[in-house]
Each structure stands twice: as structure tokens, then as C-alpha cells.
Write a structure and sequence with these properties.
The complex is a heterodimer of chains A (about 425) and B (about 250). With about 425 residues, chain A is mainly alpha-helical. Chain A has helices at about 1-10, 30-40, 45-65, 70-95, 105-120, 125-150, 155-175, 185-190, 195-225, 230-255, 260-280, 280-290, 295-300, 305-330, 340-350, 365-380, 385-415; strands at about 180, 330-335. Chain A has a two-stranded antiparallel ribbon. Chain B is of the alpha/beta class and about 250 residues long. Chain B contains eight helices and ten strands. In chain B, a hairpin with a 2-residue loop joins strand 9 and strand 10 (about 220-230). In chain B, helix 4 (about 115-130) packs across helix 5 (about 150-160). Mean pLDDT of chain B is about 85; it is low at about 245-253. Classes of the chains: A mainly alpha (about 425), B alpha/beta (about 250). The interface of A and B includes residues 8, 221, 222, 280 and 301 of A.
Amino acid sequence: MTTTNDSINDAPDAVPNPMLASEIQQSPVTFVRGYLRRLRAGDLGSLPIIVGLIIIAVIFQTQNENFLTPRNFVNLILQMAGITTIAYGVVFVLLLGEIDLSVGYVSAVAAVALTLMLRPPTVIPWYVALPLALLIAAAIGVLHGLIITVIQIPAFVVTLAGLLAWNGVVLLIIGEGGTIILQDNTILGLTNSYLPHQIGWLAGALFILYLAYNQYSRIRIRRSANLSYTPPIVAGAQVAFLGLLILIVIFIADQDRGVPLIGVILLFLLGGLSFLAERTRFGRYVYAIGGNKEAARRAGIKVEQIRIMVFMISSLMAGLGGIVLAARLRSVATNAGGGDLLLNSIAAAVIGGTSLFGGRGKVSSAVLGALVIASVQSGMGLLGLSAGSQFIVTGLVLLMAAAVDALSRRSQRRSGLA
Amino acid sequence: MADQPLLELKGVTKRFGAIEALTKIDFQVKAGEVMALVGDNGAGKSTLIKGIAGIYPFDEGQIYFDGKPVTILTPRDSAALGIEVVYQDLALADNLDVVANMFLGRERVQAPWRLNEASMEHDCIETLTSLAVTTLRSVRQPVASLSGGQRQVIAVAKAVMWNSRVVILDEPTAALGVAQTRQVLDLVRRLAQKGLAVVLISHNLHDVFEASDRIMVLRLGHKVTEFATTDTTQEEVVYAITAGTVQRVPGME
């Protein structure tokens, strides 16, 4: 590697090359300046949604002092778990520039399948039943993907048909007006267990160490490859900020029942899926297809294969989300997967900043968006407002998020950023 | 070696149903040479390069690469030979950064799945530097933020990066301003100096005369003639493009 580094530095033209770290050293000041410049140009990142969350918190707290309590905070995590899990999968579909309308009822199918397997006459142990239920969900996704790519029907239509058909399947299995009770304690524990306090703090500490190591190895690799890197002091500040946030969350949760297990699961899923989206070939291809399908095809990417896999991920995450929701409700009823579940899941991804037009967004937008939706619902519930007004406010929030996206994109285009 | 064409087509024909888009075309390009392909709309320029690129294979005729007969049936075949096509619509993904675009479809990975970003970024910078491209602020900015000329340069550099031996440029200067056109034409000459065989397709005869060594004229799927750039004039080429040679007017109307 060292020889190639030298050959760069000995490049014939003596013009300073701004792409090289050795020529322009990033200092904290230039780093912050660069961030502000991007901000002014309209590249807002997750800033709008964080501001939005703070506004939501302030409004509800001034109206009802129960909003920012440890108890409500833990409830919030439990409430957002199902939507977040489903929205994780939706993000991938949106990155492709497509849509999956079937996630609501696919989640119900997986939940029904799991509860049926866990109760008599079958009584399969949970560690067999859970993977089987997820397998069913994944298979449904592959089926959607195959129909979309082989027969070439738009995803909107195929998953709309899926929405109807899988709803029918749920109704047929449960029967009109029926409810199946979920009896397995391990599955119920998904949304009903909390980390003991010491374990919670230990997990938090490990997480912060992991973040720090991640930043450190990134800087080390980039420095040794003679590339520009985040100034260590900025990277350290980032880790410190995130770490502080984590510790505050643990502290607040411990005032109540403790850190919910499902919160940790959500975090693990976030890490794994973000890695998949941003650090692997598969993820790179998803973004590329969403950005320019023809370019991806010409680059030799097997576009259809990637699309099928994305619809598989979408259904798989929907299935997992359905199981989380069932565990929280302790049962599956005929209305499972219906109501506002589908729309909230898609809205979560969009509110969090994932573009409906493909190629732009992050897995973490699912968490931020679901947090906004759950906060609005919880806050308005505390204020005793009806479901009707909750829907209206959620709708307005969605509209605002889309407007921020559209406006920031326009100003980015004007300033030559996107 | 220098006299032998790097890429040679003999008698290639392409039909779409009853329409013959290309009729018995002979074509060759040597290493270190810029071969311009000109002709009016529907002359068959795009069909010819799509055949070479393996997007739709020729129906008849033989392709030789380095003097050896080869078959090109898919884009993968042509890429394996070292033929790269830079398309008119650029084939860049706007939302991805420069590095991601340069390596699209050929990303480097570390064990087990992780993309090797540092190594890709390093080689990306190296390639751009070797082509004297220094106008980028960062190779980590999305391609959407680049100017038309910079985007075209990235698309060309992508082809160079893969040690291609033949680079086909489809209308590289369309929709570019004067300075940007200059930048791209300079790059075209630099590619030839590096020993690549370059095929340049353009409507703009001024660009063609500036950058090419030889000019081949197509009309309605037939090869009209071939000029050495220094031995001809723009008027002569325009006449060949619009009228064709009399005895070769095709009887397919």
C-alpha cells in the first residue's frame, strides 16, 4: 500500500489536490464549517425530525405533566416497537423507489401462524415456531417479489392484491370476530421483559465502547490510507453525545420498570440493518437501483434479484413486527394487521426522512419516524383527545415531513448539492 | 502490434424484425487512436456500439479482439474483454457519491461482507489524479452535485479505472458548455495517449475534428466511407453524412 501512496504524492501536476488528506488537513473548525455549509445548502439530515421531537415533547409536557415521565417513556418504547420493526423493512422498499402495501396483513399472517403453532394441538416449542413463522413471512415476500419481477406488474398493484388476499387469509384462519390467545411465555416476554438494572448499565457501557471502537478503527484505517478523516476530537464528541443519550435513556427507564428487552432488540436490528444498507454490496445495490435503475443494470447488478430480496426483507420485518404486536396484545384478533398499521409503518419511514422516490434515506429513519408517531399518539391520548384528532395530527406531521424533504431537496438542487 | 487493430468488426449486420439497422459494417480501431463515428439520427451509430457492448448481439458478422475472433453476447462478455461504454445518459446513480459510482457493480469487500471503502476511495483518487482531474471538492460528494462536465469526466474515469482497452464514448459533449467540452475533449486525447482505443460518437463535427484521428460515416445502417481526420474537411464529412455515396443509397425505404 505504501508504494501506491507515494505514487499519488508524486503525481505529475503540482496543483494541490483537495481530495487528499495530506494536502488539506481536516481540523475541527473546517469540519464544523463544512457541516454548516451543507446545512445552509439544505442538506439537513435528521435535524428537522430531532427539532420536531423536541417541539412535540415541549408541547405535550406543558399540556400534561405525565408526558415526560419514566412510565410513559417506557410505554413509548413498547408502543413504537411493532411499527418500528415493520418500518425497518419498509425503508428498504422505499429506497428502491417502490412500495409495499401488504406489510400490515403479512404481519398478521406471521402472528397468526405463530400463535397457532404455539397452542394445542401442535404446541411446537417457540424456538422452532418463531423461525417457521418468520420463514412463512419471508416466503410471502419472495412470492411478491417474483410476481413483481417475473410477470412485471408494478409493486403497488401486487402488494395491493397482497393486502386484500392476506387479510382474507387471516379472516379465514381466525374466523369472523375470533381471537387467538398467545400463550407462550418466551414470546410474550419479547414485549414484557425488562433488563435488570446492572445488566442495563453493562449493556449501555458495552454499546458505548463499541461506538468508540468503531470510530477509532475508521479513523485509523482512513489515516493509514492517506484519506481525509473526521478529526478525532469531533468523532470523540459524537461518541460522547450518543453515549450520554444512551445513559440518559437507561437512567430514565430504570426509574420505571427498566430498559425494555424490545428496546435492545430494536437497537440490534437497527445496527444489523444499517450495516446491511450502508456497508455491504447488497445495500449499495439497493441505493443504486433506487437512484438509477438503468445505471445499476448496466453496471452488471442483478436488479431483479435485489428487488426480490428487498421484498423478502420487507415481509420478513413485517412478520417480526406482527409477532411483536401480538406479544404486546397477548393475542391475535381478526382485525390484526388492519386499521392504521400499514399507513403508520410507511409514514414512520417517510417522517424519519426516507424519500418515497427512492435512493435516499436511512434505516434509522424508521426509529425516528415511529418515535414521532408514537409520541403524538401517546401525548394526545394523555390529553384525552379522540382517535380522530390523533389521525389528523399524524397526517399533518407526515405532510410536514414530506414538505421539509421536498423543500430541502429543492434548496440542495439550487445550491448544486443534489 | 501497433498496426493490428485492437477491435475489429467484419461484416456485422443487425436486424430488428424486418428492419435492417446495420448492413455489413466493417469497423476497426487501433490502440492509441481516437476513432469518431458520425452520422445522422437513425444512421446506426447507437446500434453499432450496443452490439459491441453486448446489449443486443449482432445477427451476422465476426468480431476480432487483439486479432482473435471473439463472441460478445452479453455486457459481461464485452466488459471481460476490456471494452467500456460511456453512455449518453451517463449511467451514473445521482444519489451515490463519486467513489460508489466509480466502483458500481465491482465493489471491493473485506471479509466477510463489509465494503472496503478506504481502498476504493484511495484508488478512485489515484485514477482521477492520473487523469489530471482536480476540480472535485471531494470524492465523497454525491454525483448529483457535480457539473455536467465533471459528471462526464467521472463516467469516463470509471471506464479507465477498470484497465479498459477500448472506451466507447456516446455523445460525451452533448449538453456541455464550452469550458466543460474542452475538459472532456482533453480527457479523450489523454485516453488515447495512455494507449487506449477510443471510439467517439458525436453530432458535433467541431468536436470530432478536434479530438479524432479517423472518422467513419454511417448512413441508414450502411458504412458510407472512412476519412483520416487530417485529410478531410468538415464540408466533405457533412456531404457524406447527408447524401451518402451515390452508389450506396440503400433500397430499403
